[in-house]
Design a protein that fits this description.
Blueprint lengths: L2 H11 L3 E12 L2 E12 L3 E5 L6 H8 L7 E6 L2 E2 L5 H7 L1 E4 L11 H8 L6 H14 L1 H5 L10 H13 L5 E5 L7 H18 L2 E5 L3 H7 L2 E6 L2 E7 H4 L3 H6 L22
Parallel strand pairs: 3-8, 3-9, 6-7, 7-8
Antiparallel strand pairs: 1-2, 1-4, 4-5, 9-10
Length: about 270
């Protein structure tokens, strides 16, 4: 393990860790999807997990939120062990999951989708305030409040999915591939709102994203996942300067490297 990176991670998260995974392993039947994953996210921080398709990024989030039970390891959220807890209890504890592919309730109205996000709450005044808050973040949802969610565009459905998670008044959000299938303009708009949510509400965020350039620019700390294992971790500022990240995730190749096939070059994680 990179000692400097590990020390940097501890420095950022030791004061008030919101989430900690220790040696977590999850599988789909006989196929191990993540192996020995250890990571932590500081309170009020944005952390990101980078990796290619099939690396196990979404599996990490599903394991945290209780959709998948880990075979090994432990998960702590705000000091409480939530390993293999029921997903509804994890939501009540203050952790919301925005899944890949949005997964809105297509036949329910936009308003009813938002109310589904608040189903664990009993504070009507707080729910009303948060409804106004999400409409302020995404004004188009107010305009489409009576419309069936299935008739929204992809970008609008992503806005709705994030807003539905906010209606649970979470301390932390797990955000899975928010840019999937969206135009660069919409991607930029949604990431700007994600940063606002973090800064204005103090909401901790664990972001899984294939758009490495965008993720590294909004997050504080990053992890690189390959074949189910964490192979690199550091502050996003340092990750952006690492040669392997530049070439394999940001598409930047050193000058003078001509004729070398990308798939023949090995990564030298360091």
């Amino acid at each position: 393990m990179n000692t400097q990176a590990f020390a940097s991670g501890l420095a950022q998260t030791a004061a008030a860790p919101a989430l900690r995974l220790q040696n977590v392993e999850s599988a789909y039947g006989p196929i191990r999807a993540i192996r020995g994953v250890s990571l932590q996210v500081g309170q009020g921080q944005i952390a990101t997990v980078l990796g290619s398709n099939g690396a196990g990024k979404s599996t990490i989030l599903k394991t945290i939120s209780g959709i998948i039970d880990p075979r090994k390891g432990s998960i702590e959220f705000e000091g409480e062990d939530i390993t293999a807890r029921d997903p509804s209890l994890i939501v009540q504890r203050g952790l919301s999951h925005v899944p890949e592919g949005r997964e809105v309730f297509a036949l329910l109205s936009v308003h009813d989708n938002l109310m589904m996000g608040a189903y664990t709450r009993r504070d009507r005044d707080g729910v009303a305030r948060d409804l106004e808050s999400v409409y302020a973040y995404f004004p188009i949802l107010r305009e489409r409040a009576a419309q069936d969610a299935g008739l929204l565009s992809g970008g609008q459905q992503q806005m709705l999915s994030i807003s539905r998670a906010l209606m649970a008044a979470p301390h932390m959000i797990l955000l899975d591939e928010p840019s999937l299938g969206l135009s660069p303009l919409l991607t930029r708009e949604i990431f700007e709102i994600v940063v606002r949510i973090n800064r204005e509400r103090g909401t901790t965020i664990l972001l899984v994203e294939q758009n490495a350039n965008m993720a590294l620019n909004v997050a504080d700390f990053g992890y690189v996942l390959e074949s189910g294992r964490i192979v690199m971790e550091d502050t996003c500022e340092r990750l952006r300067e690492k040669d392997d990240i530049k070439e394999f995730y940001l598409g930047m190749k050193e000058t003078g490297v001509r004729g070398e096939r990308r798939w023949k070059k090995k990564k030298n994680w360091r």
